[in-house]
Design a protein that fits this description.
Oligomer: single chain
Structural class: alpha+beta
Number of domains: 2
Order of helices and strands: EEHEEEHEEHHEHHHEEEEHHH
Largest sheet: 5 strands, antiparallel
Number of strands: 12
Number of helices: 10
Strand content: 15-25%
């Protein structure tokens, strides 16, 4: 076992441990993404295999999700168990273009996005989720808790870019009939953080990665996420209420990160996430 050189909570297998687990030795190991909750590495083994290695701290449910899900959307994977508080898995290296590189127009991206969302709805299994906003009661719990914590973060100076008046306006938005109707019309499993960098276009169909925080919510939220990831205004294709739901989930994550995950963090990042989400909700 080895500790991450920067983020103290993240632990990973040593090369020797990986050789024992995978049956091949590690020739190359390169970190391609890291932050305080996860580390992602690209590995090449001596038998020529290439893999993604992921060590993740809560609140991710990705390893459990892969273990429970049945779908051709998901790449091959293997759960390597837990080290400390980290859930660890390997995922096949996908040698195919990303959706961001496979389309030329906004309309093309939107068409692909609708197809991906339709296939996400077909994933089978007893699937774990990070969050459920798929009923009026579930939405009320999430919305009220988020607004309450947002208000506290504004009061304590953690979110200086947000005013108490803005908090109140978002609270009223969450309780509007239009929002409740949108939330409860057709909720189902969604990716929760779908971007054009997480969808591969292979000869055998789409592959979708990064299932850390799947949600029960209206499926169009994933399409909003996909369009926003390419800086496309989603209001060209979707109504403003569903766009607001996407941004509320973004606000929820900013509040959760500051309030629970990193309460001692005093930088501007989560404040910026929050203020951007509020602007878009109230737009």
């Amino acid at each position: 076992m080895q500790k991450h050189p920067i983020f103290a909570g993240i632990v990973m297998h040593s090369d020797d441990e990986l050789e024992h687990a995978l049956g091949a030795s590690v020739v190359e190991r390169q970190t391609i993404h890291q932050w305080p909750l996860s580390c992602v590495q690209r590995m090449r083994l001596n038998d020529g295999t290439q893999l993604i290695y992921k060590s993740q701290l809560p609140p991710t449910v990705e390893a459990k999700f892969y273990g429970a899900a049945s779908s051709t959307l998901l790449p091959d994977h293997r759960r390597l168990g837990r080290l400390g508080d980290c859930d660890i898995m390997t995922i096949e290296w996908i040698d195919a273009p990303l959706l961001r590189d496979a389309v030329r127009t906004d309309d093309e991206l939107t068409d692909h996005g609708r197809q991906v969302i339709s296939q996400i709805a077909e994933i089978r299994g007893d699937l774990p989720t990070y969050l459920n906003i798929g009923s009026s009661d579930a939405w009320s719990v999430v919305a009220d808790t988020t607004i309450e914590r947002l208000g506290k973060l504004v009061q304590t100076g953690h979110f200086p870019s947000t005013s108490p008046d803005a908090v109140g306006r978002v609270r009223l938005w969450t309780r509007s009939t239009e929002v409740i109707d949108t939330i409860t019309r057709n909720p189902r499993l969604i990716h929760g953080d779908l971007t054009a960098q997480q969808v591969f276009v292979t000869a055998a169909g789409y592959r979708v990665i990064d299932w850390q925080r799947p949600v029960i919510a209206p499926p169009e939220v994933d399409l909003v996420a996909l369009l926003v990831s390419r800086r496309i205004d989603p209001r060209r294709y979707l109504n403003s209420t569903i766009v607001g739901v996407f941004w509320f989930l973004h606000l929820h994550w900013a509040v959760e990160a500051q309030f629970n995950l990193f309460p001692d963090f005093r930088g501007p990042l989560f404040d910026q996430w929050s203020s951007q989400a509020i602007r878009e909700i109230l737009r």
